[in-house]
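Late entry, evening session. Most of the bench is empty. Finally got around to the prediction I had been postponing all week. Sequence below, unchanged from the version circulated by S.P.
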Amino acid sequence: MRYRLLTAAFAAGVACGAGPAAATDLEVTHWWTSGGEAAAVAELAKAFDATGNKWVDGAIAGSGDVARPIMIGRITGGDPMGATQFNHGRQAEELVQAGLMRDFTELAEKEGWTKFIHPKSLLDGCTLDGKIYCVPVNIHSQQWLWLSNKAFADAGVPLPKNWDEFAAAAPALEKAGIVPLAMGQQPWQTTLAFQVLLVALAGPETFQKVFGDKDAAVAAGPEMTKVFAAADQARAMSAKSSVQEWNQATALVINGKAGGQIMGDWAQGEFQIAGQTAGKDYTCLPGLGVNEIISTGGDAFYFPTQKDPEKAKAQEALASVMLSPATQVAFNLKKGSLPVRGDVDLNAANDCMKKGLEILAKGNVIPAPDQLMSADGVTQVNDLFVEFFGNRNLTAADAQKRFVDIIAAAD
């Protein structure tokens, strides 16, 4: 799909979703707490407040792994927020099936969401039994390797163009006192690194067979053995990365204390607020420089059912404004993500964001694992890679065998 420029989007204000005359407070829960994320959230809040309602921020620190159980507990416990973030996929499936989430099919049809949300899989992830239950707000791809230009200059080695060159540069980086690979200790980060290695080194077809088709034979095969060997390399290169949060790992790259980080494009928000320029201060390799593929993961907002009719009206206003062209541009520029609207462009996009737009325009996309596997299966994979990266005695071969068992039992 061709993207056209919306140069007036910033000045246009909120074009749709007029709210009620009296201001209605609406609590919105999310796990966006880093500097770059907070700047992006402020754009959503500003757009919603312009409808005459009031965004009440319900940020929960500690990433989605920490926030989701809290969010789910509130909804099932009868204390629902007005809107809540989840990732694209099946994370809210049981809540929808229990009748705890609002059906937005009527609003989606009225505003023509199917005509401008691109790719189609984003809205498919919001759909259950033909009804639409969420609002996708961005496309976040995890398929990136972020490099510190300063770190490689200090180590006296050229910037790598792919994963093999990056791994080969590790000894020079270590000799210069630089951590080759920055990685936080949150469970999802180690799994993310593995998934990115899988797509880059084994290819998107293998990824689909493993996570989509739950093909245990492929999971046990030689292509996946190669991926687990690369994960073992990543484990060694990140051994001295002792930070916890993902943005702390990004800060190591920003400060030249680490050579690189495997992380989603949300890392761009951190480079942006640090005043760094893509192509000058840092470099990005989509698909680790091997397979230029992006995943169509990202974030969507669900709206728990409300007894108060005014809050229900405010929910509709928020859903509408999140998808307005002006909000899509302002939010995604700050977030480092791509818009879900196929009819807008980020004309202020930096070099890395432009790479993502080009890959998306070519259709070189895959679904995120959350869109293919149940939350329980994803948790089991997370647990495995937390152990793998934390326990050098767990060999790559043994980890692969355990991974095969998880895939064989997954739904």
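Two things to note before I forget:
Residues 1-21 have pLDDT under 50 and may be disordered.
The chain has 22 helices and 13 strands.
Will write this up properly tomorrow.
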